[in-house]
Amino acid sequence: MLLRILKTNTTFGYLLIPLLTILAWLPQLGSDTWQPMVFDAHPMPLFELITNYIALDSPVSMILAMVLLMIFGFYLISINSRYVILSERTLLPTFFFILIVSSLTPLHRLHPALVAVLFFLPALDRLLSSYKMERLSYNYFEASFLIGAGSLIYFNLMYYIILVWVALLILRPVIWREWMFSILGITVAWAFFASGYYLIHDTITPVVDLFITSFTAKDQYIFISLPEIIFFSFLLLLIFFSSLRISGALPKMKVLPRKTFVLFFWTWALTLLMYFLIETANIELLIVAAIPVSFLLSHYVLSLRSGFWGNLVLWGIIAGVQILVWLPRFI
After folding, report:
1. Is the pLDDT of residue 30 over 80?
2. What count of Cα atoms within 13 Å lies in the side-chain half-sphere of residue 207?
3. Distance CA 27, CA 29 (A)
4. Sequence-distant (≥ 6) Cβ neighbours of residue 266 within 8 angstroms
5. Which has the minimum average pLDDT: 89-103, 198-212, 223-237?
6. Closest CA to 325 of 239, 235, 233, 231
7. Cα 112–74–15 angle (5° rounding)?
8. For a 10 Å CB count at each end of the chain, is N or C smaller?
9. Residue 73: CB partners within 8 Å, gap ≥ 6?
């Protein structure tokens, strides 16, 4: 039943996903707990502007974050429709994306990685739209500029410039000017900011100091909750089976969907490397990792012949998320 609702773009599905989102965020709306992260101590300039007007531990922060998350989730439907990444027009990527991101209650508020996705998703969109362009594509300048602008909100978004270069390798013939555009875009974003900061403050020393701190600061959040470990072990098991399934399906796919899943793999792999290797990167990266994972799991569920197993996966995700968010209220 649940699979039938989410498998296509049904009206009930469009109502069900916000309902599940509210249910997952409801415990934190009434909570006074606060989990500080490294970006709270060292906010990037554009995110600091937001914190001047919105208290991050307030209900307003949580509601805005929840609304942004749903907007991003439904944006994935638009991406799927335009590039036909999956064989069907479906709500499944939105379902998986929102539920996975909702699983960690410390992120049930405005945080820089969430706001930076406002730039990351359009950048990803620009990369995909560059495929088969016959003329010189300026999409790589735009994507790079968006990533640079987003890094002024969440510094670690800067590392996704590597994704632009991966896209150049797999989506385009080698055109040296497009490679230059990819470097120029992120440079221009930071140059605009540094120039504006200097004109206002007559110095850029704080910008340089913040840039250095963004490489050296350490995050103290410890990921040891047993329910979290169980849920993400279940999620990794699904990712493993989904990866096996799609590895066999890739040769049969059309060119753009196949290349898109390769790009998604690099997105997920890069995010995983950042989590383990970069001191300032932590659980907030889940919101980026959830984008490729949501499409991977959607493909897996759509490829299952038995509706029973598909429904089991969907209900397993719902149950796992609800246990994670509600259990701390009762223990």
Report:
1. no
2. 20
3. 6
4. 162, 163, 166
5. 198-212
6. 231
7. 120
8. C
9. 17, 93, 94, 95, 97, 98
The predicted-structure confidence for 255-293, as pLDDT tens digits, reads as follows: 999 999 999 999 999 999 998 888 888 889 999 999 999
Q: How many CB atoms lie under 10 A from the CB of residue 44? A: 23
DSSP string, 95-151: HHHHHHHTT-GGGSS--HHHHHHHHHHHHHHHHHHTTT--S---HHHHHHHHHHHHH
Distance from C-alpha of 9 to C-alpha of 3, rounded to nearest angstrom = 11
Q: Is there a contact between 93 and 124 (Cβ–Cβ < 8 Å)?
A: no
Q: 215-242: per-residue pLDDT in tens?
A: 766 666 665 678 888 999 999 999 999 9
Burial label, 276 (beta-carbon count in 10 A; 0-12, 13-18, 19+): exposed
For 107-117, the pLDDT digits (tens) are: 898 999 999 99
**Rg of the chain's alpha carbons, rounded to an integer?**
20
Cα–Cα distance between 50 and 43 in angstroms, integer?
10
Token pair of 212, please?
A: 């250095």
Q: CB under 8 Å to 221, separation ≥6 — which residues?
A: 35, 37, 38, 106, 282, 283
Residue type for 176, please?
W
Task: Give the integer Cα–Cα distance in Å for 253 and 249.
Answer: 7
Q: Is the pLDDT of residue 200 over 70?
A: yes
Could you tell me the CA-to-CA distances from 302 to 4, 6, 93, 204 in Å, in that order? 10, 10, 11, 52
Neighbouring residues of 158: CB distance < 8 A, sequence distance ≥ 6 = 147, 148, 151, 186
